[in-house]
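Thread amino acids onto this structure.
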């Protein structure tokens, strides 16, 4: 049994997360895990253009960004646009962690990378670090 704890104190407002994932089952599973960890999922998108529009509209605290998305643009392009337009940073979730991909992704100053398939503890660690940064504790 995996025990998950909320990385943020109960007195704080939940961190709001936008999920960008082209596989609907993976997005639903991630939404469930994030809810169990105490985060508020504000939306789910499956392509770069809709992700950028949703980030501008919803103003999440963090974007969980898959690198491979539906359509001509990938998650790195979406993350760069979101960062430039809103200042919002992401955590990349992807099976693709090669050096070239990570180098491209570094341009948008992500909170981190979580390899797929991810383990809840790894996801929790990355989100805990992002939460600490957002709340000015780092």
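Threaded sequence (138 positions):
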């Amino acid at each position: 049994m995996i025990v998950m704890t909320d990385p943020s104190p109960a007195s704080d407002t939940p961190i709001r997360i936008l999920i960008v994932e082209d596989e609907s089952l993976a997005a639903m599973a991630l939404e469930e895990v994030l809810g169990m960890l105490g985060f508020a999922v504000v939306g789910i998108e499956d392509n770069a253009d809709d992700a950028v529009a949703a980030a501008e509209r919803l103003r999440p605290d963090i974007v969980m960004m898959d690198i491979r998305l539906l359509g001509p643009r990938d998650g790195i392009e979406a993350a760069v646009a979101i960062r430039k337009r809103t200042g919002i940073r992401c955590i990349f979730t992807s099976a693709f962690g090669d050096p070239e991909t990570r180098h491209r992704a570094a341009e948008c100053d992500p909170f981190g990378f979580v390899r797929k398939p991810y383990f809840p503890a790894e996801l929790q660690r990355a989100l805990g670090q992002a939460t600490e940064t957002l709340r000015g504790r780092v």
